[in-house]
Amino acid sequence: MKAASMLRLFSLRGLPWGLGNGGQEKVELTAAEVESLRSELADMEEREAQLKAQLENIDEILRSSRLSGYLYIRSRWAALPGEPPPIDDTDIDDWLPRFIVLHDLSPLDSTLLSDIVEVGRSPSFKSEDDEMRYAFFILTRHGLRYECSSSSKIKVDAWLSALQADCKLDCGTTAPNGSI
């Protein structure tokens, strides 16, 4: 493959490539195209600065966290008084992998540790790919129930211990489907 065709393959969209003296390739740009590229470059540099700031914020959150890692999670709402009990949805595989961080800050999409009223072990189960999953739940005072699982029993035990300690929950609290 010739150099000219290689350059066209990796060229920026809309930039004309032409042959110069001595067989060397050159780009011919108008003043408007140069200004457009400068504007795009400035926008990319600004976006890079924003992403670096977000990354530094995430790094600080992770450094201050007591526990973090990927868990499979799903959430359910508890039945309100007078409502029928929720349907049995144990056959529905709606577990989503999420990166969870246990810390004192309260960013968006978070649950305050002070809102947690119960933490407990849930029955283990096999996922669709026949992998054994160990599970636990978190119940908030607002009736939201988070069900979490992992293929690592050690990881689940670590999360349960940390949540019980940080939420100051009694280790003898019994759950509807298990006890801790």
TrEMBL record:
Keyword terms, alphabetized: Coiled coil
| SUPFAM superfamilies, A to Z | PH domain-like (SSF50729)
Q: Which domain of life is it from?
A: Eukaryota
Coiled coil feature spans: 27-64
Supply the name of the protein. PH domain-containing protein
Organism field: Stylosanthes scabra
